[in-house]
Amino acid sequence: MSKPAIVLVPGACLSTTVFSSFLPYLQKLGYSTLTLQLASANPQGDPHLASAVSDAADLRKDIVSILESDGGRDIIVVLHSYAGIPGGGAVKGLSKSIRAEEGKKGGIVGVVWLAALLLPEGKDVASWLEGGKGWEGNKINFPRPGLTSLSLDHVPAGLFNELDPSSPLIAEAEASYVPHAISALSSTAPPQCWQDDEFKGMIGYVQATMDQVIPFEAQERMVKRSEVDWVVRKMEAGHLPWVAYPSETAKVLIDVAKNF
To answer: Is the pTM of this model over 0.90?
Structure first.
C-alpha cells in the first residue's frame, strides 16, 4: 500500500517557502509532500474581510482538489500555529471513511497540529490562549492598513529562541515572511474536525516545549480542554521546530502518523 502524501500549511505571516528546506527530510522517509497557503497570508483583496472561516473555506477547496487528483489520494494534513484554527475546520467531512461512504476515492487519514492553535468552534485566540508573546512586536497596519508583519528585531527571540540570533537558518527562514490579515488572527474558530467522531483516532499534536509564541503550557492546556484523545509528542524546540531540527521534526511527524 502506498504511503499517504503529507500536506503542510504554515501559520500566520509565513509563506509556504518556510518548508522548502524541510520537505526533503519527509521525502527521504518515503512520503510525497505538498504545501498550501492560507488566503489571509499576503491577501490580494481587502484584508479586513479575512477570517478563519473564509480561510477554512479556501483551504478546503485546495484540499479537495488534492484528494481528487490522480484518481483519489490519501493525505495527512499538518497544521502549524494559526493554521490550526482554519485547518481544523477545512478538513471536516473529508476523512477517508466519510468519502468512501459517499462513493469517493481518497481522503484524509490523519491531521497533526504542530505547535498550533487548537480552538473549539466560536472561540477566538484572545479568549482561549493565556500567556505567550503571540504577535507582540509585530508591525501593525504594515505594509498597508489591515495587515500585520513580523518585525525582524522581534523574530529571533520569538520564533527561534533555541537558535543563536546570527544563525544562517534564521536568515533563510526570513525569506518566507509575508504580511497577514489582522482580522483573520482575531476572528473566531469555525466548527472543528477534532470535535467529531469522524476523526477519532486520527488526530495528533506535536508540542514544542521551548515555544514562546504559543507556550508549552498553553499547548498542553488546549489539548486538555479539547476533552478528546490525541496522539501527543513533545519536541524540545521553539515555535518553528523544523527550522532548527528538520530531521527530528520529520521523524516525529511520521511517528505520530503511524498511530493513525
So the answer is: yes
